[in-house]
Amino acid sequence: MYVSYFRLNEKPFSLTPDTHFYFNTRSHSDALNTLLLALRNGEGFIKIVGEVGTGKTILCRKLLASLDSTYCTAYIPNPYLRPDELKAVVGEELQVPKISQLATHQLIPAISKHLIDLASEGKQAVLVIDEAQSMPRETIEALRLLTNLETEKQKLLQVVLFGQPELDKLLDRADLRQLKQRIVFAEYLKPFDRNTVVHYVDFRLASAGYDGPRLFTPDALRLLNSASGGVPRLINILCHKAMLCAFGRGDSPVTSYHLATAVADTPESQLLGRLAVLVRRLYKPLFGLLLILALALVATCYGGIL
Fold it and tell me: What is the Cα–Cα distance from 119 to 253, expressed in whole angstroms?
């Protein structure tokens, strides 16, 4: 693998949401600060929305890592659950005593008692749900009923929803307006701009132990920005493949040729990716030269709007 070849300690562009590689952009910083402030103030619902690959899960992990021992957290990465399953999972995550032995009708009273006990100890319960747009409508209603648990002075359970834009569409349903009205704060994660893409690549490489000259050439970075649209997940995929290509050829630094090859091999990439596949099919014998020329031309024409 290219880790030793490029003098790295680990792979810099893994898709695993490792908080060691958390990159604090303005959008993510605003969202994290909003989350921490809202939780400290005991707000009920907080919502974080972002397109696929914009870093919701790593922000979710960063939030959980940032909460101290005064918080008791429950994390649900896949909320496609029936209402009773949701209650059982919340109970397990919050370590409600003997929750697995309880009948369905006993779940809410047991959770309520446990939340009251936590509050009496000065602890705040926080439920964090990733991919919230996949929750069935009946499960969302069960979630709302869970948040009805409160004392005269505070909510016993705060909820943070992370989801794709489809979550907004789901909450726009008339029968879910009661839950939507409870969302006190909402933040939206945005793709990176061109300068942030460059800083992101440098940050990931440095975090993986790289300390040499800039590894990606300026042309490669321009192409990366256009092909990825500033989406962190696509940046990671394209950089990883480009570094593999450079390693396989014994090259350094990573150039626009290596990046173009990565783009052509990545169906998820945007306009440039589709063009790369087309060029590769039509001009396979001259793939390297023609692909780089075509991608460079489109990057020049569309770089400002992609």
Answer: 56
